[in-house]
Amino acid sequence: MLSRLFLIVALVFAGPLACSADSPAEFEAGKHYQPLAQPVRTRNPDKIEVVEVFWYGCSHCFHFEPMVQVWAKKLPEDVDFWQSPAMWNPIMQVHARVHFTAKALGVLDTVHEPIFEAINNKRQRLADEPEIAKFFANHGVAQDDFKKAFDSFGVASQVRQADARARGYGITGTPELIVNGKYRVTTSMAGGQAQMLKVVDFLVAKERALRAD
Question: Which pTM does this prediction carry?
Answer without folding.
Answer: 0.88
